[in-house]
Amino acid sequence: MGWNPQGCRRTRIFAIDPRLEVAETDTLVIGGGVAGYSAALAAAAHGRVLVIAKDSMRESNSDYAQGGVAAVLGEEDTHSAHVEDTLTVGSGVCERAAVDIVVSEGPKRVRELISWGGRFDSEAGRLQLALEGGHSQRRVVHAKDETGAEVQRTLVSQIRAHANITVWEFTFAIDLDVDDLGCTGALVLRDRRDVVRVRARSTILCTGGSGRLYRETTNPDIATGDGVAMAFRAGARIRDVEFVQFHPTTLYVAGSARHLITEAVRGEGGHLVDEKGERFTFRYHPAGELAPRDVVSRAIVSHLASTGGSCVYLSLAHLGDRVHKLFPGISRTLTPFRLDLAKDRIPVLPSAHYHVGGVEADLSGRTSIPRLFAAGEVASSGLHGANRLASNSLLEGLVFGRRAGELAGADGGELRESAEGDSSPQRDLPGSVLHVGDMTNSIRSLMWRAVGIMRNQESLEAARSRLASWNDYVSQVDFKDARGFELVNLLTVGLLVTEAAAWRHESRGTHFRTDWPEKDDVHFKAHSVQVIGQEIHAQPITG
Predict the structure, then answer these.
(1) Long-range contact set of residues 304-310: C-beta below 8 Å, sequence gap at least 24
(2) For the domain that residue 268 is a member of, what is the CATH number?
């Protein structure tokens, strides 16, 4: 195995032209979610920060997070309980040091948000803490069912008020700029038309996930795996990307977008039922609806396969009208479909939700490329292992975003005179020869069928062959716009996920093989690592 696009260690999808406009900053942050803004605020204490936002300042996976931020703030909760819950769900491949740091620093980051004006649900001056699947205690801080939006609102207000931070909205990062000293910035498409070479002392990837790799997803359109693809092309180590988390409950109405229905709905007592109204999940796990997400998603898929149903349902009728107050965002989402959360059974199916693996990063966000950092969903910090515990994602972004920003801002390298250019492979075909939308839909459908919730060697080999063939063709096309670059990134990440899934001959966490249904701790209690030009290989767990 060993996929090696263009047969070289480092490559680009856009050549550096010495005539390009050049901008300089101390720290470049690519991505505008919770991790990116946390990193920017920390780095700004040391110098100038430029944040590249692919869409508007508020548009990111973070803004769509409904459930909350998991943190040890309850009187009956403990550090060790949160750690153990995270390790259990992570299925043996978490890095204990990363888990300890995030759980330890999480409460400070939540209190910091509150000090900045964050408004979270409370009663009599005390935070209301929710219970979600996989947690042994109520520890999820929330703002109704729109917690991500509230966290984003709070961070954006701090970003706008900071004199050292500049944000370029609607700016697409095309490629990382890497030389013999490490990462020196990036090539970006500003305002969706002008390519600018941004030179920086340090660069932090906070680009989020890859949900749009799949036909069914909770993620917004911007989640196309750009950070992982850029880092791979630049020579960075990519880790554990076979672990893709599928959320069990997204609204399933034919022809509509897939809307997330937070795990907190089940935490508050919502039931998952089938066509007959039977609570079927207890047949698959003793925790029923509150089992870890991967278990519930597979239970739904298995149950539908055995019954022939098209979807399952969330039922909250037994909880009464109070659900509208608890989940106002979901209630508003359901209104156009004439569904009432307090009365009707809500049709749901699993969808791709969170990319557990990503760019390998240490406890300060450093990647294998000097001067390049990564934090949040794009990174593989070791926190999540093979599966993410509910509401640990915003927590990770807050903690590791800040840690990466502090080090990147303080220890950035020197700016040198920019190089004249590079010798990227010649691409001879104009973008007009390819229907980008059709190719994108083909990738997403293939990944959903062959590299989805349940996988096997036959489907993975077929997917790898098809993706490689498409990649050979697409690599000849000279793209000029963000949609074309996104297509390249989707193909890159799709191949990385498929290769890693084919390599891991076991089932663990979110990765389930019907032909290898059991864990194999002897051979695969380890990370998978991919580097351009090298064979995929195992990396031992260090904690």
Answers:
(1) 307/274, 307/275, 309/274, 309/275, 310/252
(2) 3.90.700.10
Q: Say if strands 244-251 and 346-355 run parallel, antiparallel, or are unpaired.
A: antiparallel
Q: How many whole angstroms separate alpha carbon 131 and alpha carbon 369?
A: 39
Instruction: Determine the Cα–Cα distance for residues 405 and 273; give it in Å rounded to an integer.
Output: 45
Token pair 């300890």 in the structure block, residue: 100
Is residue 218 one of the residues assigned to a domain?
no
Confirm if 345 and 273 have CB atoms less than 8 A apart.
yes
Residue 376: closest CA among 23, 20, 102? 102
Q: Which residue reads 């870890």 in tokens?
A: 292
Q: Does 431 lie in the same domain as 345?
A: no
CA pair distance 109, 89, nearest whole angstrom: 23
Active-site residues: which are they? 293
Q: Quote the distance between the C-alpha of residue 66 and its chain's center.
A: 15
Separation CA 125–CA 337 (nearest Å) = 37
Does residue 468 sit within a domain? Answer: yes
Could you give the angle at the alpha carbon of 397 between the alpha carbons of 395 and 398, nearest 5°?
Answer: 65
**Residues 499, 11, 59, 480: is their CA dihedral positive or negative?**
negative
For 515, phi then psi, to 5°, come to: -90, -10
Q: What is the pLDDT of residue 367?
A: 98
DSSP reduced 3-state for 151: helix
Q: Measuring CA to CA, which residue among 227, 318, 312, 234 is closest to residue 268?
A: 318
Mean pLDDT by 10 residues, the chain (543 residues): 45 81 96 96 98 86 73 95 96 97 97 95 90 89 87 95 96 94 95 90 97 93 96 97 95 83 86 94 91 88 91 92 89 91 94 96 98 98 95 96 97 76 66 89 97 97 96 90 95 98 97 97 97 95 84
Joined tokens for residue 422: 């590079």
Angstrom distance (rounded) from CA 214 to CA 442: 10
Smallest CA-to-CA distance from 450 within 463, 469, 464, 440 is with: 463
Query: How many structural domains compose the chain?
Result: 2
Are 438 and 348 contained in the same domain? no
- Distance (Å, whole) CA 145 – CA 326: 7
Do 427 and 300 form a contact (C-beta atoms < 8 A)? no
Backbone angles phi, psi at 286, to 5 degrees: -65, -20
In whole angstroms, give the CA distance from residue 375 to residue 364.
9
Domain that holds residue 512: 427-525
What is the rounded distance in angstroms from the CA atom of residue 401 to the CA atom of residue 52? 15
CATH code where residue 503 lies: 1.20.58.100
Q: What is the rounded distance in angstroms from the CA atom of residue 133 to the CA atom of residue 4?
A: 39
